[in-house]
Design goal:
By secondary structure, the protein is mainly beta. The protein has twelve helices and 72 strands. The protein folds into four domains: 132 residues, Methylamine Dehydrogenase, Chain H (7 Propeller); 220 residues, Lipocalin, CATH 2.40.128.630; 93 residues, Immunoglobulin-like (Sandwich), CATH 2.60.40; 242 residues, Rossmann fold. The strands form 19 sheets. The chain has a six-stranded antiparallel sheet with strand order 41-42-43-44-45-46, with helices on one face. Strands 59-58-60-64-67-71 form a six-stranded mixed sheet, sandwiched between helices. Strand 31 and strand 32 form a beta hairpin.
């Protein structure tokens, strides 16, 4: 069967992943560790799920949306904006335990339940975890369930009961929510029970793969069970709002049934004309009962909406690109839905899609022919979209990600056919064979891809959860588990390296000799950000990408886990030099030794458990609270996973640190609880708290406050001032460092911003330091000037053009006009000066850095440096600056007489002067300028220079200039 046909069948992937949740835990005779692992587990974190979403939940007032995923997270969203509120993390293990399939929220929005493969071998059972919605704390664990997958959770309309449906023929359980004791159970099921729904009177209906619909009374005793006529494998059953009817969808049939809510007799079947294959796997009624909705489980993917309770005409709503797993009605009309790719969205009562939150991961399905590899495995080409669309290329040595790259003949696709190796049925099949002999996959496992080694003596098979190497006789040489379905594999021509593209959006490198993974790459779907890491967490990352992976830390059986982005460990784990040596050595330990030797560093390995940062929780005010006075008392707690004492606490308002006049007092009863008073502007605002120990800085915890105070109509609103410090050095005293346009770049940049006076800003004040004026002392004085002048209501911009250099120890210096590269400490401007200035600035702060210059074609500049780590540090939440960098990786910043500037400055000035106004509304935001500069620089340099922007997560997009 061809890939195209199967890729388009989203139900295929949904079924495979769901079934693997049932059976994979039993592979190899083991399931889980004996206890939630105490060692940290490296996980991805993109702000969105990275694996299928099978179920969602909403509260009665439609304030909250809850989603759960195979990626082992539960996420709480603001329903009508899609804004992320909180991530809930139950205990997990590295491979299987912790995969979330089912979620529910109490109608009052106070408690969230989740389940799936959520158990550990020490109990030989599965668990339902209950989280407090406001605090995110794990408040209870139901732990007596059979050792099968928890497939669906549902609360009764009065919140008194929680129902759970179970896999493996174990039926259903209903719990009292007052104490989570058993209120009812039924294990007389022939197969998995896949959905449950309560009606307004407390009755319960379930759908099971055994073919039966079961109706229970409010005492949870079975009233009747019947096979629905429309199909053999019911996938969903949903009560109408008045309980008089039950809609049923099927996986194996294109039909739907509407049954009686009294006795399950058949009432009618909605019109499913135009659908030839695949079922409507999810169903729900509108909140008023006038409409029926059903979601497709196979291409074409849409939600069909019928009028007249499903008896009338229909309208098809394009929902997404994958199977629609769950639909729920909204109280004012419309529905919310989720899909497997993963995504969720909202249709309003007028059938307009008002929200769609799509995946942040590349989709490698069907793209194995375009999965190319270089001779040594250094460079890989993959595709961001299914069926081999939207190619991209990544180079380890160049530290570069290139979208839509030109053809490169040295990169080769996987070998899938050679004489003497008759490998068949390997493409999307249960039963791959070598010369007619089965290769022996696990139950319900699928083979996806094949790569034969260049010497033709071995071959790789990628499956639903594994990569395996076989010899010519079909003997398994090694097996490596993968964090998702393996959609593409390839082998380097030198025979040392295997690579795989995996369903969680990562690309991974393995040693051919034993299958040990030594590198992993996550290329974000924005085609800009990427992070590359070793198994123990040494990493390299593009600007703004450090938050994409981090460490999950279990806190035992009864508590929510913590998560720490790798940026929290930048000082010890940011090691591009170790990454570079990993491909050479194929061994992390050896790579560390070589990198340390070459850099002269004496690196002491400190266990992560000893350097974890504090964890902060804001106790009051609550998120989205209304406030009417500018002075807010904030109460917060601090927990110390590493037992290291807290050395500093910082408060941020709208992303900027508050330093002046801030006093933080411990509470009298508990020294871990502290209070402080914070002044906010008289508008909607965000307050964030950050705590530090001697090793690391915590993640910022944020509350959003809504301003409800009155503002006098005649009150004069003072616009902010803009302060600009522009520094550019072309005519260095050291003739080897001379540039063409760095000084002109600084002058032109300042001139473009001076035009903004009277627009967003009541005044623009610029200090320009070029060439002979740009001495070390003058630059440091400039830092002092802009720091002292900028108030909390103002905006500060620093522009640097010239040379930057990293000394042997790794410290970065900007080179003033009188710099001596042999005496950097005395003559260079160290990074610490820049960092301290930025961290102490009161207002919004933006940096433009154009210092990665080297001699090359197009008149490129002459001393190379890499500032990615510096950009990420300046843009971290605790420093709070937005940073625009001229280039990434080992690229150079180019200048050309035809432009009259460097490419970066030319693009920035054009954008500021109006070309970045994509929406035509006269305002240019940070994100709009980022987009324009990125595209324009690539255009000017024919793809040889890729600028990047990094912005703290605590700072939303904001207008920077007006179109002039």
């Amino acid at each position: 069967m061809g890939a195209d046909k199967l890729i388009k069948n989203g139900a295929y992937y949904s079924i495979v992943l769901l079934v693997l949740g049932l059976f994979l835990p039993f592979f190899n005779g083991r399931v889980y560790s004996l206890d939630p692992p105490k060692e940290p587990i490296l996980r991805m974190e993109t702000g969105m799920h990275t694996a299928p979403i099978y179920r969602l939940a909403i509260d009665a007032q439609n304030q909250f949306l809850v989603t759960g995923s195979h990626d082992k997270t539960v996420r709480l969203w603001e329903l009508f904006t899609g804004r992320p509120i909180k991530i809930l993390r139950p205990p997990i293990e590295k491979v299987f335990a912790g995969r979330i399939i089912s979620v529910a929220i109490t109608p009052d929005g106070k408690t969230i339940a989740c389940g799936g493969r959520t158990g550990f071998a020490w109990e030989k059972s599965q668990s339902i975890y209950l989280f407090d919605c406001e605090s995110g704390n794990l408040v209870h664990r139901i732990k007596d369930l059979p050792d099968v997958t928890i497939l669906h959770l549902a609360y009764s309309k009065d919140s008194k009961f929680l129902g759970a449906t179970l896999g493996g023929g174990k039926g259903i359980r209903i719990y009292h929510t007052r104490d989570y004791s058993i209120a009812g159970a039924d294990e007389d099921y022939g197969d998995s029970s896949v959905s449950a729904d309560f009606d307004v009177n407390g009755r319960l209906v379930t759908a099971s793969v055994d073919g039966f619909i079961r109706l229970y009374g409010s005492d949870f005793k079975l009233i009747i069970k019947k096979k629905a006529p429309g199909g053999n494998r019911p996938s969903f059953a949903s009560f109408s709002p008045d309980g008089s009817s039950i809609a049923v969808g099927f996986r194996d049939s294109r039909k739907l049934d509407v049954l009686s809510g009294k006795d399950l007799s058949h009432q009618y079947s909605p019109d499913t004309s135009g659908v030839t294959k695949g079922g409507f796997i999810s169903v729900c009624w509108s909140s008023d009962g006038k409409f029926l909705y059903a979601g497709r489980g196979r291409a074409p993917f849409f939600i069909r909406k019928w009028s007249n309770r499903g008896r009338g005409g229909f309208k098809d709503l394009p929902a997404g690109d994958y199977d629609i797993n769950h639909i729920l009605p909204l109280k004012d009309g419309g529905v919310v839905f989720c899909t497997s790719n993963p995504a969720f969205g909202v249709f309003d009562a007028n059938d307009k899609k008002t929200i769609y939150k799509g995946p942040s991961i590349a989709e490698y399905k069907g793209g194995y022919k375009g999965f190319l590899i270089s001779h040594d495995g250094n460079t890989l080409q993959f595709n961001y979209e299914i069926l081999g669309k939207s190619p991209a290329r990544f180079s380890i040595s160049e530290r570069s990600l290139e979208a839509d790259p030109p053809k490169e003949i040295t990169l080769v696709p996987p070998i899938t056919q050679v004489a003497g190796l008759n490998i068949t049925d390997w493409e999307y099949n249960h039963n791959p064979k070598l010369n007619g002999k089965l290769l022996g996959l696990y139950r319900e496992e699928f083979s996806h891809c094949l790569a034969i080694s260049p010497d033709k003596n071995t071959f790789l098979i990628g499956t639903s959860g594994f990569i395996r190497l076989y010899d010519r006789e079909g003997n398994k040489q090694w097996e490596a588990s993968a964090p998702g379905a393996v959609f593409s594999v390839n082998i380097s021509e030198n025979g040392r390296v295997a690579a795989a593209a995996i369903g969680d959006g990562t690309v991974r490198w393995y040693r051919m000799k034993d299958g040990k993974e030594f590198l992993a790459l996550f290329p974000h779907k924005d085609k800009k950000r990427w992070v590359l890491w070793t198994p123990s967490g040494y990493y390299d990352a593009s600007p703004g990408a450090e938050e994409l992976i981090g460490w999950h830390l279990n806190n035992g059986r009864e508590a929510a886990a913590d998560f720490f982005p790798v940026s929290r460990f930048r000082a010890t784990k940011y090691r591009p030099d170790v990454i570079a040596k990993s491909l050479e050595t194929l061994d992390e330990t050896e790579a560390i030794k070589l990198a340390n030797k070459e850099s002269g560093k004496k690196v002491e390995e400190v266990p992560l458990a000893k350097i974890f940062p504090p964890v902060v929780s804001i106790l009051s005010p609550k998120d989205s609270s209304e406030v009417s006075v500018p002075e807010i008392e904030v109460k917060f707690s601090i927990r110390n996973p590493s037992a290291e004492p807290v050395t500093r606490v910082r408060v941020l308002v709208d992303g900027r640190p508050v330093e002046r006049g801030l006093e933080i007092k411990p509470a009298q009863k508990d020294q871990n609880i502290r209070t402080t008073k914070v002044t906010i502007p008289e508008k909607d605002a965000e307050i964030a708290i950050i705590a530090e120990n001697k090793f690391a800085v915590s993640e910022p915890v944020t509350v959003r406050l809504k301003w409800s105070g009155k503002v006098k109509e005649d009150e004069f609103i003072i616009k902010p001032k803009l302060y600009v410090l522009a520094i550019g050095v072309s005519k260095y005293e050291d003739k080897n460092l001379i540039l063409q346009f760095a000084a002109k770049d600084a002058s032109d940049f300042a001139e473009s911003l001076l035009k903004q006076k009277g627009g967003l800003y009541r005044d623009v004040v610029a200090r320009v330091l070029t060439d002979e004026k740009a001495t070390k002392d003058e630059i440091l004085d400039g830092f002092d000037w802009i720091l002292k002048e900028t108030t909390s209501k103002d905006v500060a911009i620093i522009f640097l053009a010239g040379h930057g250099i990293n000394e042997r120890g790794g410290v970065y210096y900007f080179l003033p006009v009188n710099a001596n590269v042999e005496k950097l400490r005395r003559t260079g401007v160290p990074f610490t000066e820049m960092k301290n200035t930025v961290a102490s600035m009161a207002g919004k702060t933006i940096l433009f850095i154009d210092t990665c210059h080297a001699g090359n074609v197009m008149g490129a500049r002459a001393v190379a440096t890499d500032i990615t780590g510096i950009v990420n540090e300046l843009a971290s939440a605790e420093n709070g600056a937005v940073v625009f960098a001229s280039s990434t990786g080992k690229q150079y910043s180019f200048e050309d007489p035809h432009w009259g500037n460097g490419a970066f400055t030319k693009a920035v000035v054009e954008g500021i002067n109006g070309k970045a106004d994509y929406l035509g509304k006269g305002k240019i935001t940070i994100n709009m300028l980022d987009l324009y500069v990125s595209e324009r620089v690539k255009e000017l340099t024919i793809g040889k220079q890729t600028p990047a922007t990094a912005k703290p997560q605590t700072i939303p997009d904001f207008p920077l200039v007006l179109k002039r």
